[in-house]
Amino acid sequence: MAACGRVRRMFGLSAALQLLLIAAAGAQKGGHSQGQGPGANFVSFVGQGGGAVSAVQQLPQSPQLQQPQQQQPPQPPQPAFPAGGPSARRGGAGAGGGWKLAEEESCREDVTRVCPKHTWSNNLAVLECLQDVREPENEISSDCNHLLWNYKLNLTTDPKFESVAREVCKSTISEIKECADETVGKGYLVSCLVDHRGNITEYQCHQYITKMTAIIFSDYRLICGFMDDCKNDINTLKCGSIRLGEKDAHSQGEVVSCLEKGLVKEAEERDPKIQVSELCKKAILRVAELSSDDFHLDRHLYFACRDDRERFCENTQAGEGRVYKCLFNHKFEESMSEKCREALTTRQKLIAQDYKVSYSLAKSCKSDLKKYRCNVENLPRSREARLSYLLMCLESAVHRGRQVSSECQGEMLDYRRMLMEDFSLSPEIILSCRGEIEHHCSGLHRKGRTLHCLMKVVRGEKGNLGMNCQQALQTLIQETDPGADYRIDRALNEACESVIQTACKHIRSGDPMILSCLMEHLYTEKMVEDCEHRLLELQYFISRDWKLDPVLYRKCQGDASRLCHTHGWNETSDLMMTPGAVFSCLYRHAYRTEEQGRRLSRECRAEVQRILHQRALDVKLDPALQDKCLIDLGKWCSEKTETGQELECLQDHLDDLAVECRDIVGNLTELESEDIQIEALLMRACEPIIQNFCHDVADNQIDSGDLMECLIQNKHQKDMNEKCAIGVTHFQLVQMKDFRFSYKFKMACKEDVLKLCPNIKKKVDVVICLSTTVRNDTLQEAKEHRVSLKCRKQLRVEELEMTEDIRLEPDLYEACKSDIKNYCSTVQYGNAQIIECLKENKKQLSTRCHQKVFKLQETEMMDPELDYTLMRVCKQMIKRFCPEADSKTMLQCLKQNKNSELMDPKCKQMITKRQITQNTDYRLNPVLRKACKADIPKFCHGILTKAKDDSELEGQVISCLKLRYADQRLSPDCEDQIRIIIQESALDYRLDPQLQLHCSEEISSLCAEEAAAQEQTGQVEECLKVNLLKIKTEMCKKEVLNMLKESKADIFVDPVLHTACALDIKHHCAAITPGRGRQMSCLMEALEDKRVRLQPECKKRLNDRIEMWSYAAKVAPADGFSDLAMQVMTSPSKNYILSVISGSICILFLIGLMCGRITKRVTRELKDR
User: Fold this and answer.
1) Alpha-carbon distance values, 50 to 80, 613, 1102 (Å)
2) How confident is the model over 638-694, as pLDDT tens digits?
């Protein structure tokens, strides 16, 4: 290098001979023209150059140029030239009779055999022909090789070589100040011209400099200073004996190739055994750089790829690195030879170490590199020279919205694709992932398959990957930036081509939104399996660095800097953050309310939402979730491998998760509650329902929980598909674990929860706490409710939603699990079907479950709107009959309209069920409970003392009140309610629990036909009355007698008699107020009055009732004086009975008087004695 005087110029005289070929050829044809101008010196110089072989001892030679012969391995002896040399033999070196290579004895045979005849007179044409021979059958002799080498060696050291350059490139030198200032006669000028040959516009000069380079690059010993800088490395790496023993000693491009491989190998080893010296590294890279425009100059690659060039790049013009690029593009073709592929890979690795080794990249990006300060001049081994640094620096400018020339961006795209295609071009991957590649990914070298295999391992699908390897992969993904253009990732591009053509054809090729489009179609019918895998493998890394999504970065870089303290696109400080930390920060701010402040811009928020919606498809796309929940995923969810199942599994086991994992899953679930569209799979499954029923809320830019609320409300529509229903129910179940998971509930009630229900977390407990507070405030008629109005409204929604599925009430579900299995195993969840099943099997339930069901029924009866089944079955009837009814009086309103002709049969049946339930216990009838709150403890105290909480009294209290009603001893309000109950149960025996309990056998045996009737109108009760004498069971007989007793109190409670006598009541008793037996007494009087003619059916029924009452009076004597008096007063023969009783009293009085006088007389007589 010292001989050339400049570190930056490796070749001394680097590129000057093959233009002489052109000029000299013209001179030869013109008879050695004596004309003026550059041509004359050209011809003269060629002649002298040819004669330089004979004058080799006389020409000045530096030690650096002589040493290579000493350093070379043993070679055939030098040809002996006579004193004076060949030129002397042939008449000197005159212009007219110059020395000819073709006439030299050692080369004559080779020239005749290999070179076209028209080139024999031109030494340089012969030289080019002979040095490009590589076919085994055409190899030139060793003597000829040495003659050629001596010819080139002396030619490149001749001072006249520089003088020709000065004459041919006169105008160019004057334009390039650096070259004009070079010292004359030192050999620096041509080196300078080689450095600036990209800027040479003068045709002859450009050809001169370009063509001459081939001579220098044919042998490393001819490169000025190269031997000095690399001689020790050549020996250490044993590069001098590469072709030992072979005929072609002239092809010393193999030595440079060997050094290049040594340099590359060193970069790929953590502790290299052999290290290339710094001087030689610079020299190697400089050689590669200066051979970057014409692939002929890389002699090893030229010979290795000559056939491949003809096969793949036949029409590609040489120069400006075009042939290199063409061969790079075909590197992984099946028909590419292995030796060429290896040579291309080595050159690509050199480009990765120094971007200047790529002529097209260095030229296209020169101004951009300078503009954005991406390079440092004259430091080829510096960090700034690495391809990765250049790409990162320029990509940063692009991502910041700066202008980078289209030519440079095109070159960047090519080299980013190159790095993604071949992992071996990245030394960090080789260093950090060697073991993983050998273990998991051997044999997958081509077209980016190895990188995707490593990505697959990182995702946990094939094993584990070391942290260093993961970091190396992450760095490579940032360098190549495939998120900006999917075509950079060849494996992804090929796998997803069909999907892109069908699903994303509306998006411009290369647009970053192609990846977003592919994510939107993940797990859809349009997606193919191979594309799905490649896409998720790439997205795994993009999700860990927010900057790798160019659209997100462009729209959110300001927000990220302001809120998350990020730095520039290629700043390494961001790498110190936890993977995914910046995006986590962004989405936390995306869902803040205006009151919380510091929200994202609208553009950024929309972008964050888009990515959240896409990444929710796979837990591995959430770095924090995968990192913190790795152990829990293995522990609880190892079998949940289907799409979306892993997150659902974590949510199901929320209480069992480790603290950090639980927090992350909780935060994500809380986010979902606000924006359920994050659940992309659920949204796809529910698309028909959303379009039909929820399109208004779905179109809102801000969800705020409205969409999920709509889906819940329409969960049981006919259009609802199973997947959607299951997804919605699962989300409801997850919401029960924490009230924060219900966004609207949380926002409406968070202050109330903090104030009234602190330290309560589970939603069901919070709902109970707040509901209890609301109920107590209502019962106590508090002036001001403690629970705010907006919370009370949302609380109502939550209460209604919870009634739909027993699993939404965890305490009830846990208490009844075994009962569900025993009695409701065939019943599906949802639509409150399990709850309804438990109610129907209430008597068979376990004690704990029975108590919970009773409590549930008590709540539902107090607030019928919470009775999901009733509300669902009677929805239309409520609209028809009770549009103005309060939720608390809904059932009461339905009962009043139960027998309307317009009443839906299914609703009527459901109302009857609820009446049956109410009549089992007064506590299940809030209206009765309120009306009889004084009467119940007064008349039924004995029953209450025996009662148990959470257990039905089987109608005992109501039966007790019925008897008091017959005795006309109840308060007016209570009497009204009992009358209603008696009237209803008189029409349907099922509404009388005591009658059902004690007369079940009699009903089955005596009244089976009546009990089987579809419509109950009192047939069973009438049957039992008629068959009273056949009833053997005392308790049943007593119940029937009680019915008879009740009917005497009011004709309305005897439907058969009331129907038969309806006209007579209208004609004869219309003025009589109903109740207290008044209308019954009126009918009895009419029966006794011979002037009144009753309807035959009424008369018959009345006579039957008199007989029954008479029998009842005999069978069931009065329990006490009050009962006896009541029986007399309500008896049809009360006048007769009263006259008899009065006469008896008078007789007894007279007897008493008489007896009293006799005793008084006897007493006197005794005193007188």
Assistant:
1) 17, 76, 151
2) 887 777 788 888 998 998 999 999 999 998 898 888 888 888 888 888 988 888 888
For residue 648 the two structure tokens come to 């659902």
Alpha carbon of 222 to those of 228, 282, 601: distances in Å? 11, 17, 64
Per-residue pLDDT, 217: 61
What is the Cα–Cα distance from 843 to 406, expressed in whole angstroms? 82
Dihedral sign, Cα of residue 475, residue 479, residue 483, residue 487:
negative
pLDDT at 873: 93
- Segments of 947-1064 assigned E as strands: none
Residue 137, pLDDT score: 64
Between CA 72 and CA 252 the distance in angstroms is 10
Q: Report the pLDDT value the prediction gives residue 223, as an integer from 0 to 100.
A: 63
Task: Please choose, from the candidates 1077, 1066, 1163, 1072, the residue with its C-alpha nearest in 3D space to the C-alpha of residue 1126.
Answer: 1077
* CA gap 847, 210 in Å, rounded: 100
Q: Which of 556-560, 1004-1008, 1109-1113 has the least mean pLDDT?
A: 1109-1113
Identify residue 278 by its one-letter amino acid code: E
pTM for the model stands at 0.69
Both tokens assigned to 1163: 């007493």
pLDDT (tens digit, 9 = 90+) per residue, 177-234? 777 777 666 556 776 776 677 678 888 887 777 766 666 566 555 565 677 788 888 8
Task: Report, as an integer, the average pLDDT of 1031-1054.
Answer: 84
- Distance CA(353)–CA(1127), nearest Å, equals 117
| 25 dihedral zone (left: phi>0; alpha: psi -120 to 50; beta) | alpha
- pLDDT one-digit tens code per residue, 43-91: 333 333 333 333 223 333 333 333 333 334 333 333 333 333 343 333 3
Residue 380 has pLDDT above 60, yes or no: no
Cα→Cα distances 797→509, 706, 742, 917, 1112, Å: 48, 12, 11, 25, 54
Q: Within 10 A of 4 (CB to CB), how many other CB atoms are there?
A: 25
Query: Which among 255, 241, 215, 248 has a CA at the least distance from the CA of 142?
Result: 248
Residue 51: which of 16, 99, 89, 96 has the closest Cα? 99
Length of the chain, please?
1169
The pLDDT value given to residue 341 = 92
Q: List, as one string, the DSSP characters of 172-218.
A: HHHH-HHHHTSPTTSSHHHHHHHHTGGG---HHHHHHHHHHHHHHHT
| Closest among 128, 50, 150 to 90, alpha carbons compared | 50
CB crowding 1100-1133: b at 16 or more within 10 Å, else e:
ebbebbeebbeebbeebeeeeeebeebbeebbbe
Q: Is 924 exposed, middle or buried (CB count within 10 Å of its CB: 0-12, 13-18, 19+)? A: buried
Three-class SS of residue 321?
A: coil
Q: Which of 291-295, 396-400, 567-571, 1145-1149 has the lowest mean pLDDT?
A: 567-571
Q: State the Cα–Cα distance between residues 275 and 297, nearest whole angstrom.
A: 26
The DSSP result for 733-793, as a single string, is: HHHTT-GGGSHHHHHHHHHHHHHHSTT--SHHHHHHHHHHHHHHHHHTT-SS-SS-HHHHH
Residue 1: what pLDDT?
36
Distance CA 803, CA 809 (A): 8
Amino acid at 566: T
Over the stretch 857-876, which tens digit does the pLDDT of each residue have? 999 998 999 999 999 999 99
Give which of 213, 155, 223, 157 is closest to 16, Cα–Cα.
213
Residue 359 Cα to chain centre, angstroms = 43
Element containing residue 603 per DSSP (H, E):
helix 602-615
Rounded distance, CA 275 to CA 267, Å? 9
